[in-house]
């Protein structure tokens, strides 16, 4: 783990243990929600449902649901109202990973320390399982008893925008087209924002949609925070592909280099990539100053995103 210099102008408040002590409970909470949302493996078509559960319930950091809950804590929102967006976004994330791993995309054999879905089952089943996870995510939102119709509509709008051609899917398309190319810093940042950052932004914005009263200043602050941290998340992933170990990161280290992916370390070097993570962390958390200590959960997660080892 590298040392991260802090900007004196953007020093953050001390991070308390309140949310840190609750992360295990929130992780268990969303795990239970995911288990309840997924069809049982013994329900026909059994193989498809088994594959869906394999893709979703195979561990993972659950950073996206935790961002939903952390933003909710910042805004004083009942966790029961946050369950639907937290669950739905994790289902969308799982769907995207299955597609990313396919032979036609990144052709990966390992995910979260286990065989990728198309290796564990078969390619056709993996495609169908991913295809089923995406509409299930929106069903989770639309059927949430804790949400009123206006809240459901706002969250569906935010999540669907994040995963479409102007978001995650578009970013993956650009990523595939950019293999072997040298992109500018701006072009690389745009690709990373679409591929990874857009769904991370949706985590924060989904919670904002549930706030009774949120000033334009605070909405903008959370929006900007999510954009900076979303980009930092992807750069950290790229660093781990270079500096991490397969046994630790749970996927094949060096895969980006093998595929000639356009990444920050590949184009600008690992030191500049780490420095860019520092800049994004400081810039992102600086936006949270308007919330005072209420933003401590988000500060904690931001730190984790740029320091994680997997």
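-> sequence recovered:
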């Amino acid at each position: 783990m590298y040392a991260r210099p802090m900007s004196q102008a953007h020093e953050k408040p001390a991070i308390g243990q309140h949310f840190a002590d609750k992360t295990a409970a929130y992780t268990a909470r969303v795990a239970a929600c995911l288990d309840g949302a997924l069809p049982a493996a013994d329900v026909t078509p059994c193989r498809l449902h088994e594959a869906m559960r394999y893709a979703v319930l195979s561990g993972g950091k659950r950073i996206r649901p935790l961002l939903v809950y952390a933003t909710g804590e910042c805004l004083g929102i009942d966790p029961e109202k946050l369950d639907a967006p937290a669950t739905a976004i994790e289902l969308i994330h799982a769907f995207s990973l299955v597609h990313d791993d396919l032979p036609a995309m990144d052709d990966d054999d390992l995910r979260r320390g286990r065989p990728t879905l198309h290796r564990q089952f078969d390619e056709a089943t993996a495609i169908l399982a991913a295809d089923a996870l995406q509409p299930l995510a929106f069903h989770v939102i639309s059927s949430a008893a804790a949400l009123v119709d206006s809240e459901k509509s706002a969250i569906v709008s935010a999540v669907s925008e994040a995963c479409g051609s102007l978001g995650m899917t578009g970013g993956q398309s650009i990523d595939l087209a950019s293999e072997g190319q040298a992109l500018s810093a701006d072009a690389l940042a745009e690709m990373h924002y679409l591929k990874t950052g857009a769904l991370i932004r949706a985590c924060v914005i989904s919670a904002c949609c549930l706030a009774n009263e949120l000033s334009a200043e605070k909405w903008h602050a959370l929006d900007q925070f999510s954009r900076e941290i979303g980009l930092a998340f992807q750069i950290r992933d790229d660093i781990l592909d270079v500096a991490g170990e397969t046994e630790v990161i749970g996927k094949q280290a060096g895969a980006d280099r093998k595929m000639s992916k356009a990444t920050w370390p590949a184009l600008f070097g690992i030191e500049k990539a780490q420095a860019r993570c520092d800049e994004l962390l400081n810039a992102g958390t600086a936006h949270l100053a308007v919330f005072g200590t209420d933003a401590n959960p988000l500060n904690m997660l931001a730190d984790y995103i740029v320091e994680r080892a997997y």
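Confidence is low (pLDDT under 50) at residues 1-16.
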